[in-house]
Design a protein that fits this description.
There is one protein chain. 31% of the residues lie in helices and 25% in strands. It has 17 helices and 23 strands. Helix 5 packs across helix 6 and helix 10 packs antiparallel against helix 16. The protein is globular and about 70 Å long. The relative contact order is 0.12. The chain binds adenosine monophosphate and iron/sulfur cluster.
Length: 466
């Protein structure tokens, strides 16, 4: 994750991370380790549901994984054979402990654990329909909506009920479900949110990102396809589709900012795609300077690419204090600046008297770059030229990335010239949309940059502010 000061401003919703493993004696511990490497996707809560004999048991808590799941909780999960887990990035709506996933439902003859990341474009209408039919909700969690639809479906097989339920939910999501007899992993029909399958010995593993497979020593098998539901049980792995309307539009923001650089999404390494974006930025907007600096951490890969392509030295001009914990993240405006200073420092000897190209992954409200440019100027930088490895962020996301309201976006009703002045840069350039697609080499969703949403927006149709 890029430097934690961004968390002041960030309202990322339910990016979250998923991990599951079927048929392994160390399943709960491996799930814990897998979740640990997905911590960048959510720091507000964590939970594991494990299968012990014929029972599903759950441990969950608030905060970072190490705070949420204690040693004792893990000890209670000895003897598990399968497990699924979740790290939560909460919003105001999902702040309550009841919303910490996986959710666990007990029926007369079975139990169902379910967790997800992403968001639905028809959550509100589904929920009101379900309430009309008598469903009572404990949370605002999308997983609870899916559980209710599954339960109402009453088809002959559980898989058919899940498929029918998935065909009714629309948006950007990955779901992971577990019953006593199997684990199910599903990805939305556009492949917006990432989800991969791995293998550890004879056991199948599912995770939001490949970095979690690497951590537990699992071998990458493949990405779950858009619109696919994978069933994993003692007989192995079986694939089905819950819709015929399928296409691949991976969330561009996953490559730009969200995913870990060591992860591969749809076969493309995240660091490499960022570095390519830096090279393409250099082609599209070359600026001669003394040094190139990357904004820690997510701007660094693109900065390396920019520096290489321009033949300008890449330098560590900004240092992140990795020991500043979350306790320093205060929402008060008055403390924000100090917070940023505690988290980031400019290296005077690198920037003093220099013309600097500063590469950042994205600008949303402009808060982060404004502070960084000030840090560099205070440290004596002569010129600061900003290069952004994504296009200008203009439209809201309806697929799980909770963006500020359009009015809060720096691009709202401001020209490029006005933004440059607002952030205090000498110049400001963004990669083009085509450049970003070239950098990744896959079909992407870029709706928050161009307003071109890859699905019908249902509950939100007509209300997006452009
Ligand atoms: P801002 O300070 O509001 O301009 O936020 C932009 C910074 O936060 C960038 O440096 C990114 O690293 C990070 N970021 C990227 N995408 C998002 C997002 N969707 N919401 C919030 N922050 C983001
Ligand atoms: Fe990702 Fe933006 Fe598309 Fe949302 S709108 S899925 S953040 S690219």
């Amino acid at each position: 994750m890029s430097f934690e000061g961004k968390l002041f401003e960030r309202k990322i919703n339910e990016e979250c991370g998923l991990f599951g493993i079927w048929g392994h004696a160390e399943s709960s511990r491996l799930t814990y380790y897998g979740l640990h490497s997905l911590q960048h996707r959510g720091q507000d809560g964590a939970g594991i549901v494990a299968k012990i004999g014929d029972e599903l048991i759950r441990s969950r808590g608030k905060g970072l994984l190490t705070e949420a799941l204690t040693k004792d909780m893990l000890a209670d999960m000895k003897g598990t054979t399968s497990a699924i887990g979740h790290v939560l990035y909460s919003t105001r709506e999902t702040k309550s402990s009841a919303a910490i996933q996986p959710l666990l439902f007990h029926f007369e003859k079975s139990s169902l654990a379910i967790c997800h990341n992403g968001a639905l474009v028809n959550a509100t209408s589904l929920r009101s329909k379900l309430e009309e039919y008598g469903s009572i909700f404990q949370t605002v969690c999308v997983s609870e909506i899916l559980a209710h639809i599954i339960k109402r479906s009453r088809l002959v097989t559980f898989l058919d009920s899940v498929k029918r339920a998935l065909s009714q939910v629309h948006g950007g999501f990955a779901f992971l479900l577990m019953t006593q007899s199997g684990m199910y992993a599903a990805r939305d029909s556009r492949g917006l949110r990432p989800l991969v399958i791995g293998k550890l010995g004879d056991s199948f593993v599912v995770a939001s990102e490949t970095c979690a497979l690497d951590t537990v020593g699992a071998k990458y098998v493949r990405d779950v396809a858009p619109g696919e539901i994978v069933t994993i049980n003692d007989d192995g792995l079986k694939s089905d589709f819950f819709t015929s309307d399928r296409s691949l539009h991976v969330c561009g923001m996953e490559y730009i900012y969200i995913a870990r650089p060591d992860s591969d999404i749809e076969g493309v390494n995240v660091h490499t795609s960022r570095k390519n974006a830096g090279r393409i930025l250099a082609r599209e907007s070359p600026t001669e300077a003394d040094v190139v600096i990357g904004s820690p951490d997510t701007g660094i890969s693109a900065a390396i690419g920019y520096a290489e392509a321009m033949g300008i030295p890449y330098e560590l001009g900004l240092i992140r204090n990795r020991y500043v914990g979350r306790t320093f993240i205060a929402p008060e405006q008055s403390l924000r600046e100090m917070g940023v200073k505690m988290k980031l420092s400019a290296v005077h000897s690198i920037v003093e008297g220099k013309s600097v190209v500063l590469v950042e992954d994205s600008i949303v409200r402009g808060t982060t770059v404004r502070h960084i440019i000030k840090l560099l100027r205070d440290a004596g930088a002569r010129e600061v030229h900003m290069k952004i490895a994504s296009p200008l962020y203009k439209y809201p996301c309806y697929y799980g990335i909770d963006t500020p309201s359009p009015r809060e976006l720096i691009a709202h009703k401001r020209s490029a010239k006005a933004i440059t002045k607002e952030i205090g840069a000498d110049s400001l350039e963004f990669i083009s949309e085509e450049g970003l697609v070239e950098a990744v080499g896959r079909d992407l969703c870029l709706a928050c940059y161009n307003g071109d949403y890859p699905t019908h927006l249902q509950d939100f149709a007509g209300i997006e502010e452009r």
